[in-house]
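Take a look at the protein record below and flag anything odd:
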Amino acid sequence: MKREQLYVSDEFFAEMDEHFLRYKRGELKVPEEFKNRRLTKNLIYLIALDQFFKEKHKFSNRPFID
């Protein structure tokens, strides 16, 4: 693996950790269906990504729910 690929993956995991910490502090809004559940880092990242697309681009990956 090239050094640049490792740098990008470290940056990606740092972003995932940032969203996880936001979730732990209560700053990340979690949909009602996920309340009172134990969430993985991957699921928390997907929730944060969904919020980003909703806020910035008025787009959701769940078109029939909203």
